[in-house]
Amino acid sequence: MKIQKIKKEKEFFPKEYRAYGRGIKRIEYANEEGSFLIHTQRPSVMIVPLTNARDIILLRKFERGPRRWAWGIPGGGVDAKDRGSFRLAAERELCEEAHVHVKRMKYIGAYFDDVYSTGFSHAFVAEGCRENKMLCKKHHGGGRAEDGDVFEKKFFPLKAFRPLLKKGNIKGVPISDLDVIYRGLDSGGYL
Predict the structure, then answer these.
(1) Where is the Nudix hydrolase domain positioned along the sequence (predicted)?
(2) Is 15 exposed, middle or buried (0-12, 13-18, 19+ CB in 10 A)?
(3) Cα(21)–Cα(42) distance, rounded to whole angstroms?
(4) Range(s) of the domain holding residue 140
(5) CA-CA distances (angstroms) from residue 105 to 79, 94, 96, 165?
(6) Are residues 64 and 100 in the same domain?
(7) Cβ contacts of 134 within 8 Å, gap of 6 or more
(8) Chain Cα centroid distance, residue 185
(9) pLDDT at residue 168 is higher than 90
(10) Is 115 found in the same domain as 37?
(11) How far is it, in rounded angstroms, from Cα 176 to Cα 132?
């Protein structure tokens, strides 16, 4: 299949978006009527943090879009100080949001955020995570999450994590096809 040619493109950078490396593009394709709003954003990272005891570390946050509390994993944008390294960004985000240091970091892959976005999230599994605020301060300048970013951190045994996922109490906005596939297969006992 051919990639559609763009007939017209205009980019908007609302002031509050610029600080986070985000913008909005209005795109008109040559062979379609109407236009589409596309969110532009810098790459980001998402980390699944696991302890040696096989607990998953989740963070409870207030999600502004859906206006609800949800458990989620650490993650955020790749900054200039990460020097283009997704791994460095993942380590920094773990320190900033969860105050944990990681022993091993495994790259899972890159996933696009949604079909109307230029953003890609680079996913990692962090094994051997342990709480260490001092080490985070030494290597990452203290680990400062955005004000109001993280309200609670909890270590969940993997057995307790699955029911949370099934009930929809894990952040998944926007929910991806991958989320739906996993939840569908899991609820049917296929996994």
Answers:
(1) 40-178
(2) exposed
(3) 6
(4) 44-158
(5) 19, 11, 16, 23
(6) yes
(7) none
(8) 23
(9) no
(10) no
(11) 33
Q: Comparing 123 with 172, which gets the higher pLDDT?
A: 123
- Residue whose C-alpha is closest to residue 70's, from 168, 174, 190, 191: 168
Please state the rounded mean pLDDT for residues 149-156. Answer: 80
Question: For 78-104, what is the mean pLDDT?
Answer: 89
Q: Give the type of residue at 83.
A: R
pTM for the predicted model, two decimal places = 0.76
CA angle 123, 147, 61 (to 5 degrees): 55
Instruction: Give Cα 128 distance to the centre of its chain.
Output: 20
Flag whether pLDDT at 175 surpasses 60: no
Do residues 98 and 60 both lie within one domain? yes
DSSP single-letter state for residue 42: -
Strand, helix or coil for residue 35? coil
For 100-138, what is each residue's pLDDT tens digit?
989 999 998 888 877 888 888 898 899 999 988 776 665
Helix (H/G/I), strand (E/B), else coil: 78? coil
Residue 54 vs residues 19, 44, 98, 105, 138: alpha-carbon distances, Å: 36, 25, 16, 15, 26
Tens digit of each residue's pLDDT (9 = 90 or more) over 17-76: 666 777 788 888 777 777 788 888 889 898 989 999 989 898 888 777 777 777 888 888
